Amino acid sequence: MSTSGKEPDAVRGTVDAGRVRKVTFVGLLFNLFLTFLKAAGGILFRSQALLADAVHSLSDLATDLAVIFGVKYWSAPPDETHPYGHGRIETLVSAFIGLALVVVAVGLTCDAVTTLRGGTEQRPELPAFLIAVISIVSKEWLFRWTRAEALRINSPAMEANAWHHRSDAFSSIPAAIAIALASFFPALRFVDPLGAILVSLFILHAAWKIVKPTLFELSDAGMVGKNQEIRAAASAVPGVESVHAVRCRRAGTAVLADLHVMVDPEMSVRNGHALSHRVRRAILDAMPDVKDVVVHLEPYNGPRDGKI
Length: 308
Known about the structure:
The chain is an alpha+beta fold. About 65% of the residues lie in helices and about 10% in strands. It has eight helices and four strands, in the order E-H-H-H-H-H-H-H-E-E-H-E. The chain has helices at about 15-45, 50-75, 85-120, 125-155, 155-185, 190-220, 225-235, 270-285, and strands at about 1-5, 240-250, 255-265, 290-300. Strands 1-4-3-2 form a four-stranded mixed β-sheet. Helix 3 (about 85-120) packs antiparallel against helix 6 and helix 5 packs antiparallel against helix 6. The longest helix has about 30 residues, at about 85-120. The two termini are about 20 Å apart.
C-alpha cells in the first residue's frame, strides 16, 4: 500500500516572493549606480581593470532582473502541470546567474590579453582607485545583507545573487591594487590589465560555487545525509517495524522524499493509512526543508525484537 498521507499542506512552504523582490530591487539600484560610476571612472581615468569591474556590475543587473521576474514563477503553488511545485525554476535561475558570470569572465580575460599583447596599456589615474574602494565597501555590505535575508527565507536563487555581490566586492580588490600600482609607478601600468584578468578568476570561482549545486539538483542527485535523517524520524514512530528504500531529492528550496515502511501484516487498511500520516508528520516536523513525503507500506515478516 502506498500513500502520500496528503494533508492540506501537501507540498508545504512557499517562498516570500515579496521579500525576494524587495531585497533584489535594492541590489539592482546599487548595481545600477556602481555600473555607471565604474564605467565612467574607467573611461575618464583610463583604467581597464575598473572598466572590467563595471562590466561585472552590469552582469549583476542582469541577474537581479532574473531573480525579480523569476520569483513570480518559482513561488507559485503546485498545479496540474507542475504537481511537485515550481522550485526547479529557481534552480534554473541560479544556473543562469552562474553561466552569466562565466561569459563575463571569459570576455574580460580576452580583452585584457588583447591589451597586453598589443602593448597599449594606459596609466590609470588615482580617482579610479577611490571608485574601486567605494565598490568594495558597498558590495560587501550588500552581500552580507542579501545573504542574511536569503538564509532567513531559504531562497537559493537569492543566496546565489548574494554571492554574486560578494564576487563583485572581491573583484574590486585586485582592481584597486592594480590601479594603485599603475598610478604611482608608471612603469607598472601593465598591472592594470593584469588586474582585469585576476578579476576574471574571481568571477569564475564565484560562478562554480553557484553552478555546482544546480548541476547536482538538475541531475537528481541523492542526498545521503538527508536519507539517514528521514530513516531515523520514521523509525521512531510507534508501529513502524522497519524502514528501507529511503530516497529524497531537491527541487529548489524543497526536499521531496519517499520511503518504504514495514508494519504489522495484520494491520487494517484504516490503521495503516493513519500510521502513514504519523510517519509523514514526524518527518515534516523534524526537517522543515522537507516539503512532501510519500510513504509506501509493506508487511513486516521479520523478527519482533528490534528494527532494521
